[in-house]
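Researcher: We're teaching a course module on how sequence relates to structure. For the next exercise, students receive a sequence and then see the predicted structure as tokens, so they can try to spot secondary structure elements on their own. Here is the exercise chain.
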Amino acid sequence: MDNTYLTTAELAGRIKYDARVIREQLKDSVLFEGIHYIRPFGGRKILFIWERVEEEMLMGISSQSLLVGY
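Model: And here is the predicted structure for the students to work with:
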């Protein structure tokens, strides 16, 4: 499966949220590492997986997604 990876700024543009809101309020409370975003090569940079973020927005967080981790 092909994934679309977005920086925080690119994700902010797509979902019409401020990048700071994504970093400070959504990350790790609604958007989880390993499910909705990754840190490639163990670095500081965060890349969001668009298809999973979009699915979460449309469906909402389910207990299944939290348990299975996709």
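Model: If you want an answer key for the exercise: The helical segments are 8-15, 19-26, 50-59, 63-68. Residues 5-68 form one domain.
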